[in-house]
Amino acid sequence: MDEIDQTIVNLLRTDGRTSYAELARRVGLTAPSVQDRVTKLEKNGIITGYKAVIDSEAIGLGITALIGIIPDNAADHRDICERLRAIPEIESCYFLAGVECYQLKVRVPKMGDLERLIHRVGAIPGVAQTRTTITLSTKWEDRPQPVPFEQAD
Amino acid sequence: MDEIDQTIVNLLRTDGRTSYAELARRVGLTAPSVQDRVTKLEKNGIITGYKAVIDSEAIGLGITALIGIIPDNAADHRDICERLRAIPEIESCYFLAGVECYQLKVRVPKMGDLERLIHRVGAIPGVAQTRTTITLSTKWEDRPQPVPFEQAD
DNA sequence: CTCGACAAGTGGACGAGATCGACCAGACCA
DNA sequence: TGGTCTGGTCGATCTCGTCCACTTGTCGAG
């Protein structure tokens, strides 16, 4: 993970479809060597995938909400996590240090869907209480911050 | 935005580097027509970009936290938003319906950086109070949920 | 010091993919 | 009926991806 790798990562983070040839021009190497580096970054788990970024509203997922989960004392976290994972509307799931030990980011088409989703989450064994906040607008999301510093491989 | 477009979007969402030729095979069209569709999806703002997914820990951003902001009555939201945007560590920023009217997702290398960041956010005019929660683990993040339904263009 | 092993790049060759223009078929409407 | 528009195919061409052989520099062992 040297400076060139960092540049490659930053470029691919900003535009995941940049060709190897273009990356090569940017970092001053040839395409095969860049490809070699990218392959290594993928194998080492630094680059874990590539995604098209979609406008949620444009595909009918107009409502974004954050759901906090307060567990009861008997909560089996493995089970909770598994059941949460089975719900496709939950796009992100964080395990937190606090009273609300999970926070979910969910997207649904309509308010009715959100209500059903909240009931579904609330019905999971070990979930004592949920707290839902609607997002009025997303100012920005998943903005890539540059690789901060030299990092061991 | 017909069924074929939905398939294309779902495929690119899962692997943003899928070639036009491969997409064409999957949806049963030729490469040029798929390319045409993708270009239109980009122009219509449905596909807004492509990103490599990076393991934050692997690049030295080992700490993820959620920061809620409670504003005071005189808060100028345009100004707050602008100042927040200038802070690179804030990867996502949601405007919420609730007492905490913003929630930030931030990533930093070390605890000291988080402390400095909290102070920086707390010092923004119009910010009455912040509430920070550390994430112990990210169960998953930005999992693409399939396009739900036929949607007008 | 020299040798061999290894990591990282280069250059060339070849097949696959991207891209462009020309052309075609069906839908819609005056 | 005929014109136009949309969305597709086909074929040509150029770029890109990918593989392989070769080179260079580094480092440790003998």
UniProtKB/TrEMBL annotation, chains A, B:
<dbReference type="Pfam" id="PF13404">
    <property type="entry name" value="HTH_AsnC-type"/>
</dbReference>
<dbReference type="InterPro" id="IPR019887">
    <property type="entry name" value="Tscrpt_reg_AsnC/Lrp_C"/>
</dbReference>
<dbReference type="InterPro" id="IPR011991">
    <property type="entry name" value="ArsR-like_HTH"/>
</dbReference>
<dbReference type="InterPro" id="IPR036388">
    <property type="entry name" value="WH-like_DNA-bd_sf"/>
</dbReference>
<keyword id="KW-0238">DNA-binding</keyword>
<keyword id="KW-0804">Transcription</keyword>
<dbReference type="InterPro" id="IPR000485">
    <property type="entry name" value="AsnC-type_HTH_dom"/>
</dbReference>
<dbReference type="InterPro" id="IPR011008">
    <property type="entry name" value="Dimeric_a/b-barrel"/>
</dbReference>
<dbReference type="InterPro" id="IPR036390">
    <property type="entry name" value="WH_DNA-bd_sf"/>
</dbReference>
<dbReference type="GO" id="GO:0005829">
    <property type="term" value="C:cytosol"/>
</dbReference>
<dbReference type="Pfam" id="PF01037">
    <property type="entry name" value="AsnC_trans_reg"/>
</dbReference>
<keyword id="KW-0805">Transcription regulation</keyword>
<protein>
    <submittedName>
        <fullName>Lrp/AsnC family leucine-responsive transcriptional regulator</fullName>
    </submittedName>
</protein>
<feature type="domain" description="HTH asnC-type">
    <location>
        <begin position="1"/>
        <end position="62"/>
    </location>
</feature>
<dbReference type="InterPro" id="IPR019888">
    <property type="entry name" value="Tscrpt_reg_AsnC-like"/>
</dbReference>
<dbReference type="GO" id="GO:0043565">
    <property type="term" value="F:sequence-specific DNA binding"/>
</dbReference>
<dbReference type="GO" id="GO:0043200">
    <property type="term" value="P:response to amino acid"/>
</dbReference>
<dbReference type="InterPro" id="IPR019885">
    <property type="entry name" value="Tscrpt_reg_HTH_AsnC-type_CS"/>
</dbReference>
